[in-house]
Amino acid sequence: MKILLFPGQGTQKVGMFAPFISAFPIAKQTLEGIEDVVHFKISSIVEDGTNEELSKTDNAQLAIFSLGAICLTILQKEYGFDLKQQCKYLAGHSLGEYTALYASGVFNLRDMSKIVRKRGKLMAEVCKTSQNYIMTAIVGKISSNDESLFEKLKDLVDSQSEQPGICVIANDNSNTQIVLSGHANAVKNVIEAIMGEYPTLRAINLNTSGAFHSPLMSKSAIELDEYLSDFSDRINEPQVPVISNVSATPIFDKTIICNELVSQMVNRVRWRETIDMVTHDNEIDEIVELCPGHVLSGMLKRDYPDMLVTSLETMSQIDDFMKR
Model pTM? Predict the structure, then answer.
């Protein structure tokens, strides 16, 4: 059995639609269907825009979801890939969780396209209205044992909570990477405390002006909750369980899905725990990341070198994968 992974924001790339659209007419039809629903031609930005324009939160999120939907269509319609037969779980990092829920049949393409577009706009609005939010990755290894960076740094981050401003761990990505999110001054103060104690670590500022997966997204979470209520009567049971970002456990019950998506806006992405669960499941013999990019599979290969990890980010890779 396999688990199929879907990446989040930051994996977008100018020109990424073209190889898939040119290969299969159904890929173009899928993209046009998304654009018709959201009344926005994302393909113009992806194919003819700049990296700066594509990197804007609302554009990036719709573009990444659209490519995920295109590649899922190719896998299922052109190659006959059966998710229910081949995959024990699906999972996605942040935005990728939305693609996973679409893949599982929880939302149809029309509804999920609208939801992703709304989410991107809500999060982009936070970026526009505040110049004081940042996200910073802390990368490195500070222990010779298997203790994760999150386990080593959680108490230190929490100990700074009385300072002015908010700083939280937004993403627990792997044994060697976490992401801090919050007010710029608070995040910088926490980084100084971390570097003072663990000088071998590196801090890398991320290309976002939002404080995603933190309490500073509360207003967006409330608005998303209100928006999702319009879709509550059209949610289906997952055909393949999707592992929640918030709980790091599989979702089997459709009634909690909207709450999970709202909660994800303000809470930590527990990706390391998700992957730890997957790699200890004896029924799973391969982890597959579906494009764009190979960020998730790259982390997996570093942390779990003995696990079979496959990245599907090009048509040739998809073709080779399906011809095995």
Answer: 0.96
